[in-house]
What we know:
Blueprint: H1 2-21, E1 36-43, E2 58-61, E3 72-76, E4 83-89, E5 94-99, E6 110-116, E7 123-130, E8 137-145, E9 148-155, E10 164-169, E11 175-177, E12 182-185, E13 189-198, E14 203-211, E15 215-219, E16 231-233, E17 242-245, E18 251-258, E19 263-272, E20 275-284, H2 286-290, E21 296-297, E22 302-304, E23 314-319, E24 327-332, E25 337-342, E26 353-356, E27 361-369
Keywords: Signal
Signal peptide: 1-23
Amino acid sequence: MKSLTTYITLLLLAIVTCLTSCVREDDEPALAKVAISRLYVSFSDYQLDEGQTPYNNIDIIDPADSLTHFEPSLSYNSSTKGGAAILFNPIAKYIFQSSANEGGIVKDTSIQVMTVNPVTGAPASNGLISNGLLTRVRGLAYHYNKGTENLYVADLGEGTRPPSIYLFQRPGSYRGKAKRNQQISLGKLVPWTMAFKNAEDNSDLYVAVNGEKKGLAIFKDILRKNQPADSVLSETAFPPKAVLTIADQGEIRGFSYSARQDLLAVASYTSTGGTNVGRILLFEGAGALLASSGDRAIQATRIITGALTGLKRPLDVAIDNRDGAKYLYVADADTKIVSRFLITDKDNVEPNKKKQYSLTPVALSLDARGPSEID
């Protein structure tokens, strides 16, 4: 009897231990039971005439990897007055969308926070991060680390206020005015898209930059900057550990990195005499580049560009990061087209699929989980 009691006690202890210690502490979302391939598209247009129907500033192309079609399954008006950066994170289970604030016609210094229907991917209003510093947001990056939620926001700056990265913790809890938890000044670097590369106990933040240098700035272990709340770090107090400079490719815009493909894609364009020429720069074996600890110049191993591509002013790119995935997606503001290319494409090649819009697509966020569709 005593041995049976001991056995039951040990069994219960094992169960409790598993329940308390088998909780996921990494930043990988749970595997989807079914394949998910949803492309969220953000549009910068805003209906100024209140007597007219507001524009839907988010489209969802689902499934984005379909072999037969490439069409929106849902459109949504987030109430953002002209969309800019958009980010869906399956760990947070939120969509974040910032306002474009172009031309000063409409003032909207906020980030909309939306929940997502797990079956359809449909957004629903959940909250609002409002702060007067958020005048020209172009980059959003979310990180979950051992119970702490962090939303980093890249803003172009305004007037005498320099380009900066702002931190908002617990971003899903705000319903209006939000105080930033930290500010990192970028000095003469002008930010665009941002993304995290997660490791076991640290996290590196990658930021597409223009200005004094053009390329990708790498901020090492940004989560370890345990400064007091509401702290402001100058560009000299916390500079990037490396800038991967990209020469002779014009303005650097959105980027996407696939660890499984070990492929980095960067959107860029040049302007000559009022004519824009767009490019998707592809860097194979990019993991070694992103591990750099000092400034260095990098060159693309492949480039998608030319008349057949239809690329004029691409502002964002997204790579499908799943095993066996075949596609990357591009939002072009001049042509108002969202295109799908093969990740193996190069040179002057037609898109695999494309969607023409009447509104202006400026940013993408891809939710791709589970098995990818195979020919």
